Amino acid sequence: MSTSALRDSSKNVVQSLGYQFNENLPSLDDVRIQRDETEVIGRILCVYVSVACSYGFSKEQATSWLQRESLTKFLTEAETDFLNGSSESYKTAIQWQVEALWALSWACGYHDELDFSVSCPDAFIGLFPDLKSGQSSSEFRYRCKIRSSDEIAEMLDLSYCLHWAVRNSGLTDRPQNANGKVEPRVIEERRRSFEWLVSDDDWESVSLDT
């Protein structure tokens, strides 16, 4: 898809959700996925485990599972501190990253639904290994099929444009379509996933400027 067609597609979605579209936002540079499959799966599973612990799953059991699956090297410093019990203040931030997890899962072909106007469904937990039983991640890894750079670019451009629109709506108190309301943290965390995929930035350092 050409750059102009990409932006036109984003514009249509943003406006269909009831938001003002900014015609002056710069176009994205050439989008290329910078992460290999092993790194992406590692990131997904580390976020998954951290989110599970933020909702009460045993940190000790989670850490043991990560070690057994050779995933601890993919943990961020903040996640490591949280799982070690030294950073409970990170709990709320981790809980919101369930939306980043939903976006990354889409990027890896685990599901085909990524509607920015609604939060991720509770049932999507079934996509992942069962931590309670200590299920291996091997089948989950096998099912990973990272989407093309063109598909990722389309979602990245949309999340960038929509992020600006949502922020602008909050600043101006602009009326918006009640059926299309986008929770700011939903768009932030989903955008984080796509920005991370196409950059060399650490997960916690991904720029979400608009």
Verbal overview:
The chain has helices at residues 3-16, 37-54, 59-68, 77-83, 91-96, 98-107, 138-142, 149-172, 184-197. The protein is globular and about 50 Å long. The model is unreliable at 174-180 (pLDDT under 50). It has nine helices and no strands. Helix 2 runs antiparallel to helix 6 and helix 8 runs antiparallel to helix 9. With 210 residues, it is mainly alpha-helical.
Features:
210 residues; mainly alpha; 0% strand
Lay out the secondary structure.
Layout: H1 3-16, H2 37-54, H3 59-68, H4 77-83, H5 91-96, H6 98-107, H7 138-142, H8 149-172, H9 184-197
Helix pairs in contact: 1-8, 2-6, 6-9, 8-9
Mean pLDDT: 91
**What's the count of strands?**
0
The helix count comes to: 9
Q: Uncertain regions: pLDDT < 50 for 5+ in a row? A: 174-180
Helices and strands, in N-to-C order?
A: HHHHHHHHH
Summarize the structure.
The chain is an all-alpha fold and 210 residues long.
